[in-house]
Amino acid sequence: MTEYDVQYAIIHHWQNSGNMFIPNLCSGYGEMDVLRLTKAGYAYEFEVKISRSDFKADIKKTHKHHCYSVVFEKKTDAWIEHNGKKGIPNYFAYVAPKGIIPVELVPEYAGLYEFDESTGLIITVKTPPRIHNEKQKDFWETKALQSLHAKYLYHYWFKLKESKAV
């Protein structure tokens, strides 16, 4: 099983609800494995973890998790005061194969979904709570366009360079 298998399952699970999905989107807090943007303007970040060690490494991303926690707990923080909530999704959840992440290790501001490889289904273990109420649809749509532009441009120049190789 790969990250792409889980990304596909996430998108397939919520595809009929009028959402926009962007895989591997860079935000101000690192790369999101999948961003789901609802028609109402709420952003969901899905962080895919294939192994327990992968999950433990993610928890060590202290800046990201500190900021998500501060906003969720409605505390003040110099970084958040200066930068606002831009780049912080309304909801954050881990998605991993069954049994990889114990629910008691999931931060209070995060949810947990499990991927059942035998059925290809996503199962809710812990529903993610709302981190904040601020809708940032324009911000996320701009990020999506920037990401698509960068990926397209990279592939275009790579192919162009490759075609001119001797």
Radius of gyration: 17 Å
Percent of sequence in beta strands: 15-25%
Q: Round the mean pLDDT to the nearest integer and report it.
A: 86
Distance between the termini: 38 Å
Strand order of the largest sheet: 1-2-3-4-5-6
Count of distinct strands: 6
Percent of residues in helices: 25-40%
Unreliable spans are none
The biggest sheet, with number of strands, parallel, antiparallel or mixed sense and barrel status, is: 6 strands, mixed
Choose one word for the global shape.
globular
Number of helices: 5
Number of domains: 1
Please identify the structural class as seen in this structure.
Answer: alpha/beta
Q: Which sequence of SSEs, written as H and E, runs from N to C? A: HEEEHHHEEEH
Topology:
Elements (H helix, E strand, L loop, with lengths): L2 H12 L5 E8 L2 E8 L5 E6 L3 H8 L2 H11 L5 H6 L7 E7 L13 E6 L4 E6 L10 H27 L3
Parallel strand pairs: 3-4, 4-5
Antiparallel strand pairs: 1-2, 2-3, 5-6
Describe the protein's architecture and organization.
The chain is an alpha/beta fold. It has one domain (3-163). The chain contains five helices and six strands; from the N terminus they run H-E-E-E-H-H-H-E-E-E-H. Strands 1-2-3-4-5-6 form a six-stranded mixed sheet, with helices on both faces. The model has no long low-confidence stretch (mean pLDDT 86).
